[in-house]
Design goal:
single chain, alpha+beta, 4-stranded antiparallel beta sheet, 3 helices, 8 strands, 27% strand
Length: 167
């Protein structure tokens, strides 16, 4: 990755605040990672994006975001808010941007939905990565779209002092 941290523009916004070109570029990046690279056929445009906030790291050097995650409102997928569709594109892998993405996604979720836990459906090989952000496995591993997954929960905190940092 040739971008310095100062070149990367982070954007946190609700679905209705995304431009059509941003949305197209997000879908392109998600399909590249999940459908093409992981050879997994599934319906990416699942109707949940409209009930979610979107966090993306944008570079002036490419159309698609370098990293992306969505934070789904409570009651849509789970009782708690959830983080999903977490990707780091090939151009940014190994740069630490995935960790920064998750740090920011958790902070935004805590600030936007204070006093609630956060639930994820993690690809099983990444469970250790997510454990570093306070997530613990709940339940048994399962197959989702042919890939082993595990549900993980980050318990609610008593208070949150982070700022949502909305753009």
């Amino acid at each position: 990755m040739n971008d310095s941290a100062s070149d990367i523009r982070w954007r946190w916004c609700h679905f209705d605040e995304l431009g059509v070109h941003e949305l197209q570029d997000i879908y392109r990046a998600r399909q590249q990672v999940f459908v093409i690279e992981q050879a997994c056929a599934y319906l990416d445009a699942d109707g949940v994006d409209e009930r979610a906030f979107h966090l993306a790291a944008w570079s002036p050097r490419q159309r698609e975001p370098l990293a992306y995650a969505r934070v789904v409102e409570p009651g849509v997928k789970y009782a708690e808010p959830s983080i999903g569709r977490v990707i780091t594109t090939a151009a940014a892998r190994g740069s630490g941007l995935g960790r920064e993405l998750m740090r920011r996604a958790v902070a935004h979720a805590l600030a936007t939905f204070p006093g609630q836990g956060i639930r994820i459906s993690a690809q099983a090989p990444l469970a250790r990565f997510y454990a570093g952000f306070g997530f613990a496995p709940v339940g048994e591993p399962y197959l989702e779209d042919g890939i082993p997954h595990v549900e993980m929960l980050r318990p609610a905190e008593a208070t949150s002092t982070t700022s949502s940092g909305r753009c």
